[in-house]
Specification:
The chain has 344 residues and is an alpha+beta fold. The protein contains five helices and 15 strands. The strands form two sheets. Strands 6-5-2-3-4-8-7-15 form an eight-stranded antiparallel beta sheet. Strands 9-10-11-14-13-12 form a six-stranded antiparallel barrel. Helix 1 packs antiparallel against helix 5. The longest helix has 20 residues. The protein is globular. The site of 4-(aminomethyl)benzoic acid has 12 residues, from strand 13.
């Protein structure tokens, strides 16, 4: 009887376990997470390959082939990357931009790494480059990526997620590891951060009113651990309170210096832009008349009409119910094994 139940459960789990080579309907999962120890980090540390599989590096390839990492970003569907609008302030579509997905050490990109070009850049129509309000942008890739152990989608929360209750939050990026040095790490850095109360963050000795309701503050009151230049556009993720997947709650936006006391990192809160994201991706009709700034990328290899997103279900159903199902069936399997061990 037990064997039969396990077989049924395994059959039910199969589509979930089989989603690693196409993103399926899952997001926020880290297939290689079992490889990492539960090490505590002080400041940024090298991330393990595949640790943050939605993390992308947005780069410029200069004439002569020199590659420069400009900003981070997060893969939210097989063909869309969420990033910061200010990464494209000196917007130069004539340059050769590229998006690197699945990388860990930028100088040694193995077969797990996928490189795409930007088909379209969509900057928020109300982005303000003084206040950094609405510092959010979407990149449409020229071709969809293949999901794998190293490439997974991030989960964008809608308004129903109680973000302030999330506890295990992390930032990652290839940005500067020291505020006073422009040297950039080769290996992806990661650090745990705390979500900080927005009222405290806006108080007179902190950011004195510069924090908007569409922002999140994350880091530490005493500084030391923070994002920095080059981390912009990258993810602030928090683990779900009940299951083993991560929410993309913020896009790295700005901060006064890096890692200073009472001046934590400021992030664009993704849940406030959930509807905007859906509209831009063509998954929901636009309600407003203001068009988003569409920047054509002339070098995009194919100038074919924009394909109809085929990944809509991945974003729409994100993250429920698959991660919850994985969690549920894992618990049931553990229970069955425990019962079997007791010969019940
Ligand atoms: C930047 O310039 C930047 N300390 C990103 C994050 C922070 C500061 C600056 C937060 O990309």
């Amino acid at each position: 009887m037990n064997v039969l139940l396990v077989l049924v459960l395994l059959a039910l789990c199969r589509p979930v376990q089989g989603t690693w080579d196409n993103c399926g309907a899952s997001c926020g999962l880290r297939p290689l997470a079992h490889r990492y120890g539960a090490s505590r980090v002080v400041g940024g540390t090298d991330a393990q390959p595949g640790a943050w599989p939605w993390m992308v590096s947005i780069q410029i390839v200069w004439e002569g082939g020199v590659v420069q990492h400009i900003c981070g970003g997060s893969l939210i569907s097989a063909q869309w990357v969420l990033t910061a609008a200010h990464c494209f302030l000196e917007n130069r579509p004539e340059l050769l931009w590229r998006v690197v997905i699945g990388a860990n050490r930028l100088s040694q990109m193995g077969p797990e790494v996928q490189v795409r070009h930007i088909q379209r850049l969509l900057i928020h129509e109300h982005y303000n480059n003084i206040s950094q309000l609405n510092d959010i942008a979407l990149l449409e890739l020229d071709h969809p990526v293949q999901c794998s152990y190293y490439v997974q989608l991030a989960c964008v929360p809608d308004a129903s997620l109680r973000v302030s209750e999330l506890k295990n939050c992390y930032v990652s990026g290839w940005g500067a590891t020291n505020a006073r040095s422009s040297r950039r790490p080769d290996v992806l850095q990661e650090a745990p951060v705390h979500l900080l109360n927005t009222h405290l963050c806006n108080s007179s000795r902190w950011y004195a009113g510069a924090i908007h309701s569409n922002n999140l503050c994350a880091g530490y009151a005493y500084g030391i651990i923070d994002t920095c230049q080059g981390d912009s556009g990258g993810p602030l993720v928090c683990k779900d309170t009940t299951a083993d997947y991560f929410w993309l709650v913020g896009v790295t936006s700005w901060g006064k210096g890096c890692a200073r006391a009472k001046q934590p990192g400021v992030y664009t809160s993704t849940q406030h832009f959930y509807d905007w994201i859906l509209v831009q991706m063509g998954l929901r009709p636009a309600a407003t008349a203001t068009p988003t700034q569409h920047v054509p990328f002339t070098y995009a290899p194919s100038q074919t009409p924009r394909p109809i997103p085929t990944q809509s279900s991945q974003f729409d159903s994100c993250p429920f119910p698959r991660p919850k199902l994985v969690e549920f069936f894992t618990r049931v399997q553990e229970l069955l094994q425990a019962l079997r061990g007791k010969n019940v």
